[in-house]
Amino acid sequence: MARLVILGAGIAGQTAALHARRRLGRDHEVVVVSPNSKWNWIPSNIWVGVGVMTPEQVTFPLRPVYEKTGIAFVQGKAVSVHPEGDGDSGKPYVKVELTETGKSGQEERVHYDWLVNATGPKLNFDATPGLGPQKNSLSVCTFDHAAHTSKAFDETVARMKAGEKQTLLIGTGHGNCTCQGAAFEYIFNVEFELRRRGVRDKARVVWLSNEHELGDFGMGGMFIRRGGYVTHSRVFTESLYTERGIEWITRAAVKEVAPGEASYETLDGDERSLKFDFAMLLPPFSGVGLKAFDRAGADITPSVFAPNGFMLVDGDYAKKPYEEWSPEDWPRTYQSPKFPNVFAVGIAFAPPHAISKPMTSPKGTPIFPTPPRTGMPTGVMAREVAFNIVDMIKGNATAPKRQASLAHMGAACIASAGAGLFRGTAVSMTLFPIVPDFRKYPDTGRDLDWTFGEIGLAGHWIKHLLHFGFIYKAKANPLWTMVPE
Amino acid sequence: MSATKPPAGTRTPFEQTYYPPVPTEFTKKMRTNLLWQIFRFAVINVKILRMVRKH
């Protein structure tokens, strides 16, 4: 009997666990380790953040799903990986600090034959002084943060209804943030709600981000065919902002968030600041801080994890200039080169480099987005890794055969621009491949037949359907496999 | 929806919002036109499903 342990129960962890459980049969064990007792459909947190949804609508308890499907659940936070076991035993294990009520703080060893690291990111608010919901800005990264942000938004609207003008600042809170898409959705939903609540004329809405241009989204932007032209997403995005009267500040690294004021450095080296009444600024991501130790107890973390805490897999991590980046640098199987029974998927794997071109200010501050690795690609890589492990457990393969490189994979993305059955809109996008290939597609980096974007009510309907569809799937309800990743 | 529009005069000459294209009223109406959006719903779903099937 083999034991597969999955660290994390987000989109990647849940996808890997459910697919592995279904294919492995009862002869083998699947264990999920997660500090959270609930599953969260994170893409809908932006709706919680404007009060359109409640935290209960975007979450559900994990344990009943695992009892139904026969997956063991350890509610705890993984703190270290011991791929060679320790002096007593050569059996690999993960040291877990339990978070379950009544057992909080206790440590447990969870042994594994196969390990999938799907821990997602650490929300690194500490990277910027004053950043985060415990300090001077808000977040929609978790459902708790989003609920807190919703209350602050209601208070801001109340002040506007009382006649006060308010400045709402939304974007990224550090020079190396990713997930601009979430902030994009949030600012558009905020602007939509301000109009719906009749106070738009009292609001100055400002976008602040580390993107070189609007529409970069950490992917270097994209080209689409539109109106007889091949147009960069910058044009499309600037149009959306202009139409809504949203100001934008790009090429900015937030250096400090004081109460009511954000200080930032621009790519040309200027130090500036902006006063705000409401600020939702996303944090940069890092690995969750897992350590690794060999059998003798020596710290081998640098050979298993990158300095930013994400796990090294089968990518090409050699340092090279932007001009020498290649699509082939990107990992294909997400297998650890050091320990073949260890994999990392979703945000937990270390990208070999950014997708957007790295930029540094004259003062040496890096100001560019790190690559997004969420949503559809996360689900696909988690599924392929699960299938590879199942094949190896069953003896059908000796090495991973299925591949899910971001350089050979496309993605579909629906970004809400306001919720409403008849008045809502969302930007619908597909692109292929995610990592641009300028050798294959010299002018645009991507295949224009597979890359498109448009805004409309249909996108909102799809976003809403995805909300229900993915929660249905994550609950492993009947025919859940019919819902694609 | 009792909505207020974005502040008037946001397209000041030579400022950042002066240059991007803005949609015509017809384009904006089509974004929430039920018949057109039902058609787009089908088209976008086909595009997404084609992308999904690539993997």
Which keywords apply here?
heterodimer; A: 485 residues; alpha/beta; FAD/NAD(P)-binding domain; eight-stranded mixed beta sheet; four-stranded parallel beta sheet; 9 helices; B: 55 residues; mainly alpha; 49% helix
Structural notes for this entry:
The complex is a heterodimer of chains A (485) and B (55). In chain A, strands 1, 2, 5, 6, 7, 8, 20 and 21 form an 8-stranded mixed sheet that branches. Chain A has a 4-stranded parallel sheet with strand order 14-11-10-18, covered by helices on one side. In chain A, strands 15-16-17 form a 3-stranded antiparallel sheet, with no helix packed on it. Chain A contains 9 helices and 24 strands. In chain A, α1 (11-24) packs parallel to α8 (376-393). Chain A has a domain at 3-122 and 286-393: FAD/NAD(P)-binding domain, CATH 3.50.50. Helix content of chain A is 23%, strand content 24%. The mean pLDDT of chain A is 96. With 485 residues, chain A is an alpha/beta fold. Chain A has helices at 11-24, 45-48, 62-69, 143-161, 180-196, 233-243, 301-304, 376-393, 457-474, and strands spanning 3-7, 29-34, 38-40, 59-61, 72-82, 93-98, 107-111, 114-117, 122-123, 166-172, 203-208, 223-226, 229-232, 247-249, 252-258, 261-266, 271-275, 278-282, 285-286, 291-292, 342-344, 411-416, 426-431, 452-456. In chain A, β12 (223-226) and β13 (229-232) form a beta hairpin. Chain A is globular. With 55 residues, chain B is mainly alpha-helical. Helix content of chain B is 49%, strand content 0%. Chain B has helices spanning 25-31, 34-53. The model of chain B has no long low-confidence stretch (mean pLDDT 85). Chain A binds chain B through residues 191, 194-196, 198-201, 235, 238-239, 241-248, 376, 380, 384, 404, 409-412, 420, 422-423, 425, 428, 430, 432, 450, 452, 454-459, 461-462, 484-485, and chain B through 1-7, 10-11, 16-17, 19-23, 28, 30-34, 36-38, 40-41, 44-45, 47-52, 54-55.
